[in-house]
Amino acid sequence: MTDRIRVLLADDEHLIRGALASLLALNDDITVVAEAATGPEALSMARAHRPDVAVLDLQMPGHDGIEVAQTLHSEIEGCRTMILTSFGRPGHLKRALAAGVRGFLPKTVSAHDLADIIRTVHSGRRYIASELAADAISAGDSPLTPRETDVLSLAVDGAPIAEIAQRVGLSAGTVRNHISSALSKLGADNRHAAARIAKQHGWI
Fold first, then answer.
1. pTM over 0.70
2. DSSP labels for 135-183?
């Protein structure tokens, strides 16, 4: 059938990915053309198979689902993207929408609803799970500047000031100033705590 919706599934949990593929195969109008376990693999599979809809796990090795979606939008015309997540933090939804993602939903969604949402996204409409949208609205925007966000994202893994400075192309003193500002805004005692708070909200 030429009118089937061609779907790419990307999730690093093999059991979940396999279950989704099997359940989606029960739909006459949907076919899973490729599967991937990492961000880079998802990009490779998408380039090879050019799916109509890419269903992407938010957290994958290599690149997260939002980064993959952003690349797919620039490279594969007509490919719609959806994010499935166990971590529906407010900042993630806002990042996803900014990247052009058309669907954002929790992994608790039923297989029947997932198939319907794939059809919705394929048609050009958007689907955002109501509970995730409500959380994002109530949480507000990130208080961090883009530079503060960059610096804290590198602090998540415990990188020292000198390494952060080198990676963002700033002096160590400037990095300390950005971190100090972020600590004040987030009410954190140190950069590692600030990074954890920002990550919990999906701001980094």
1. no
2. HHHHH----S-HHHHHHHHHHTTT--HHHHHHHHT--HHHHHHHHHHHH
